[in-house]
Amino acid sequence: MKSFSHYTGLVLGLFGPGSAAEKTPKPGEVAPPIEGVDQDGKPWKLADRIGKKRVLLYFYPMDGTAGCTKEACSLRDQMSDFNRGNVEVVGVSFDRPESHRKFIAKYRLNFPLLSDVGGIISDAYSARLRPGCDMNRRVSFLLGLDGRIVHVTDALDPAVHISEMRGFLT
Question: Could you list the residue range(s) of the whole structural domain that residue 96 is in?
Answer without folding.
Answer: 36-166
